[in-house]
């Protein structure tokens, strides 16, 4: 399957087509992630992590936040040239892996900024607004937060439940407990926003 | 920094649950207070991110399941190889045992049936000795 067909399926509303494309990407891109990780002090378990995180970065940027410049189902850079999916993913995997190495304290911030390929990855992104940047950061924050926190925020913001109802659903003693819990969870995400 | 009450009203405004009076207060602040507007955008971004997160999580789980399938397949292959190795070892041990047993039983048959030449030789030896003894019973006691 070529880049155009893959991107078309990823952007479709058909769950099965999206999953099929993700599976193809998972199989075809593994060799790229493997080369990057194993050549830079990583293990086979790290390969799988980088592969998953990298594909999720593509999915998030292409489908959810629509940050990537796409024309006629092909990725384009700011100069209007086509960027192959494998070229973009090479940069994503490399940047994902070096960020992980920095988090493991194996590499310093300086080393990582020198090793990251910022050009190929960043050149395909649209001019991002402050709001889109915030959404992206919070999205990642939600992914790492506890299940209870996510549940209470979903009840409040998406299902528009009031604290009394939330207390019943979550098994809290009263509405005040729910209110305090929700505020604490929300504060955690905001701290993430300010740090970044 | 907004007070709890201010944040609460802002949240009601975003959820579309604010009263007319509250709407008026919020909209006035949004047009004049940068910090207030910033907090408003943070809460809107939170709502948007929560909406997107379900899709994000679903796909992440799907990718994880692909990895699990791969791991299960790998462990099945490893188990399959182990079973084959054990089976091969058992077959090998049985075969070696059978070969050794067959060799020994063949050897026993060979030794159990002495050749006629050997029998004759032994018999003749026995006969000679017996004949000598019978003919000269005191031969060995003879004094010169």
Layout of SSEs?
The complex is a heterodimer of chains A (196) and B (144).
Chain A (H helix, E strand, L loop, with lengths): L2 H8 L4 H14 L1 H9 L5 H21 L5 E2 L2 E2 L9 H19 L5 H7 L2 H5 L7 H15 L2 H11 L5 H8 L4 H21 L1
Antiparallel strand pairs in A: 1-2
Chain B lengths: L3 H11 L5 H13 L1 H79 L3 H20 L9
Can you walk me through this structure?
The complex is a heterodimer of chains A (196) and B (144). Helices cover 70% and strands 2% of the residues of chain A. Chain A is an all-alpha fold. In chain A, strand 1 and strand 2 form a beta hairpin. The longest helix of chain A is centred in the N-terminal third of the chain and has 21 residues, at 44-64. In chain A, 31% of the residues are buried. Chain B is an all-alpha fold and 144 residues long. Chain B has one domain (4-115). Chain B has 4 helices and no strands. Helices cover 85% and strands 0% of the residues of chain B. Chain B starts with a helix and ends in a 9-residue tail after the last helix. In chain B, helix 2 (20-32) crosses helix 3. The longest helix of chain B is centred in the middle third of the chain and has 79 residues, at 34-112. Chain A binds chain B through residues 18-19, 22-23, 26, 48, 52, 55-56, 59-60, 63-65, 130-131, 134-136, 138-139, 141-143, 150, 153-154, 157-158, 160, 183, 186, 189-190, 193, and chain B through 4, 15, 17, 41-42, 44-53, 55-57, 59-60, 62-64, 66-67.
């Amino acid at each position: 399957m070529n880049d155009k067909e893959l991107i078309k399926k990823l952007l479709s509303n058909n769950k099965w087509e999206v999953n099929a494309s993700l599976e193809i990407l998972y199989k075809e891109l593994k060799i790229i992630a493997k080369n990057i990780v194993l050549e830079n002090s990583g293990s086979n378990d790290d390969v799988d992590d980088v592969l998953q995180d990298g594909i999720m970065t593509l999915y998030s940027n292409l489908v959810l936040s629509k940050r990537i410049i796409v024309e006629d189902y092909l990725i384009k850079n700011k100069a209007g040239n086509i960027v192959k999916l494998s070229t973009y993913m090479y940069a994503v995997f490399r940047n994902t892996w070096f960020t992980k190495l920095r988090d493991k304290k194996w590499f310093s911030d300086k080393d990582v900024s020198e090793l990251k390929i910022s050009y190929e990855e960043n050149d395909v992104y649209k001019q991002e607004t402050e709001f889109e940047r915030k959404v992206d950061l919070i999205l990642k924050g939600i992914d790492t937060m506890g299940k209870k926190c996510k549940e209470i925020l979903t009840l409040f913001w998406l299902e528009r439940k009031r604290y009394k109802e939330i207390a019943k659903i979550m098994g809290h003693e009263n509405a005040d407990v729910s209110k305090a819990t929700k505020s604490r969870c929300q504060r955690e995400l905001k701290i993430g926003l300010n740090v970044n | 920094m907004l007070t709890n009450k201010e944040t609460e009203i802002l949240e009601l405004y975003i959820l579309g649950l604010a009263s007319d009076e509250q709407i008026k207060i919020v909209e006035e602040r949004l047009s004049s207070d940068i910090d207030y507007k910033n907090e408003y955008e943070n809460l809107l971004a939170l709502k948007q991110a929560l909406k997107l997160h379900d899709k994000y999580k679903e796909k992440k789980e799907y990718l994880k399941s692909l990895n699990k399938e791969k791991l299960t397949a790998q462990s099945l292959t490893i188990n399959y190889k182990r079973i084959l190795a054990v089976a091969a070892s058992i077959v090998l041990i049985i075969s070696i045992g059978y070969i050794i047993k067959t060799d020994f039983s063949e050897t026993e048959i060979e030794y159990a049936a002495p050749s006629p030449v050997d029998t004759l030789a032994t018999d003749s030896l026995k006969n000679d000795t017996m004949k000598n003894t019978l003919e000269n019973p005191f031969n060995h006691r003879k004094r010169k």
